[in-house]
Structure formats: C-alpha cells, structure tokens
Amino acid sequence: MFLVVPDPAHGLVAAPESSDDLTPLTVETLTAQEFAWNSEIEAYTRAADSSPAAVDHTAAVLRELGHYVFSAHTPLPTRRPPASPAP
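and the corresponding structure tokens:
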C-alpha cells in the first residue's frame, strides 16, 4: 500500500506502508519517473511536480502495479504539539 501526496518540503511523495511494497518493478517504475528514495522520511520523493494531475498519475501507475493507494491533492497537515494549559 502507498500514500501519494504533495508535500511543501519534499515535492511529490510516494510512501510505501512497508518494505514489502518495494518490489523490484515498483522501484524501477518510480525511479524511471524521477523519484528518489529519501531515507529521512522513508519514502520516494520527486521535487519537480506535485500538482493534482501528478498525484493522480503516480497513484494510477502504482495501482496498475497491483498496489492499494491512498492519495490526496492537498498536503497533509503538519502535526503540532498540544498547547500547554494556561496557568
């Protein structure tokens, strides 16, 4: 399973659920589309285009390879620590 989303810091992100999702054909396909592995976030990223069309295309390609894919056209919200209670 993959998550495909735009990210302001990384461009287009294709994140596998586990290493089992990284079949040789999947890795070859993502690399051919100019994605590179980013070990910091454990996902493939591509800085060039993170438009809704790019999200849809990448999700479709991964689905054609047999993966389940969750995708979104807007970046996921950044997690913020909970506010401290007022004294």
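(Above: one complete record from the training split.) Strands lie at 2-7, 11-16, 36-38, 43-46, 69-71.
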